[in-house]
Amino acid sequence: MDKAREQQVLELVPTGAFVGGEWRAGASGATFEVEDPATQEPLISVADGTPADATAALDAACAVQEEWAATPPRERGEILRRAFALLNERADDLALLMTLEMGKPIAEAKAEVTYGAEFFRWFSEEAVRIDGRWSVNPAGAGRLLTMKQPVGPCLLITPWNFPIAMGTRKIGPAIAAGCTMVVKPAQQTPLSMLLLAELLSQAGLPDGVLNVVPTTKASDVTGPLFDDDRLRKVSFTGSTPVGRQLMELASKHVLRVSMELGGNAPYLVFGDADLDAAVDQAVIAKMRNIGESCVAANRFHVHESVADEFASRLAERLGRMKVGRGTEDGVEVGPLIDGKQRDKVAELVDDAVGKGAKVLTGGERVGDRGYFYAPTVLSGIADDADLLREEIFGPVAPVKSFSTDDEAVAAANDSEFGLVAYVFTNDLKRAIRVVEALDVGMVGLNRGLVSNPAAEFGGVKQSGFGREGGREGIEEYLATKYVAVDL
Ligand code: NAP
After folding, report:
1. Is 404 in the pocket of ligand 1 (CB under 6 A)?
2. 8: Cβ below 6 Å to ligand 1?
3. Residues 335 and 305 in one domain
4. Is the domain of 134 the same as that of 36?
5. For 327-372, what is each residue's pLDDT tens digit?
6. Where in the sequence is the domain holding 36, given as residue range(s)?
7. I need a labelling partner for 415 at 20 to 30 A (CA). Which of 142, 254, 297, 399 fits?
8. Is 28 a domain residue?
9. Rounded to an integer, what is the distance from CA 242 to the centroid of its chain?
């Protein structure tokens, strides 16, 4: 990739905080550098938002909340529809920017722009389908009316792993429902969100509806918003420990809360499964986003009759994947987000190997610049290996065998997380039995990819609550008002 083109894209980024439709330097005038995880070099600096900026952003959101809620749904939908088109038009710029700041290969970054934009199209269609209910009181006298209204100003906090899609999945329904918002992007990947805010503004989103505050001090900057009773909702995507803290803060003013938290997805392959499909889909479920995805297959539980063959075929596939900077041709595996994440992945592999696992491919860091880790397949995993319990968030596939269906389901459910599970079987009865027994919010049945803007995304147990996308996604931003009508 040509350096001049990279520079050109970086120059498109508005580097301030976006408050009330204006780009501001930030109250302190301080900035922070965003790093390229493939080279460990700084890309560009952006405003380092302060608590005063966050409060100004909430002021701006509150100032236009009433007017925005009264804006015709069709108009809100049309803005989203224009934003959908703009994101697709500008997909090359957005994708390159995302690859530079986050590391994912450019083809995956483009796929994320397409996926992220789809939330705008989906919710442009949902904006005009907000409805209520009118019914006769069962006792006969009077009527019951229920209506849906926007919740009010929201705080949306997003992670670094899908810098665009995790934003549009919240911003889309908030706009459709008539809510205003303050967005706090992850400090490692604020650039895509800043350009996205600019594109939404170009699509006609009125000033103040969306405000963005990048910062290195997440807790200090969002803290005052939780203390402010004008804020009505928080939607968070990120780790379970941070989610827990935010729920505590949200209890102060009893905010509406949506939590999309960590995962530890089991990938079950039964003896009757189509092994070619199970291996193909495993590559997607494991390696999409360099394994840094909450829905990444974290552990492979494979029937003993096919476990060795599955593991060696998966090792062969992962072993030939090209590792490198995401901007380079043919690269399929980019760097991890930072040194801490790479060290964590390496420690989990070392722990498993120390407890007897065999490395079929990978198992080591790659290069001395950038946070690269080789695609890795491990077999012979001990029951107490840490990577069975912890979210790996990297390109490591542990394969463990099972002998009965009950054993497979018990192993799958043996986690405090419950976001997604993958099931590979050609036996319909087994498929239904297993799917029903899994304690998760989503299942990929003979598929390694579940994310779809038209479907409800979310988890159970410590993976959180609330749903994003699908029919339920907009409900997170709507409050129900019931009216008892006397005739
Ligand atoms: P994280 O550390 O929890 O951070 C997520 C976001 O929260 C970032 O914007 C972060 O800001 C902010 N944050 C951190 N501490 C905060 C605090 N005390 N107060 C307010 N904001 C705070 O998570 P991450 O490492 O970026 O993301 C990885 C995690 O996200 C994984 O566990 C993954 O499974 C989960 N995830 C879940 C889903 C889902 O839909 N269920 C989707 C994607 C990712 P800074 O950047 O400044 O730290």
Report:
1. no
2. no
3. yes
4. yes
5. 999 999 999 999 999 999 999 999 999 999 999 999 999 999 999 9
6. 3-261+463-484
7. 254
8. yes
9. 15
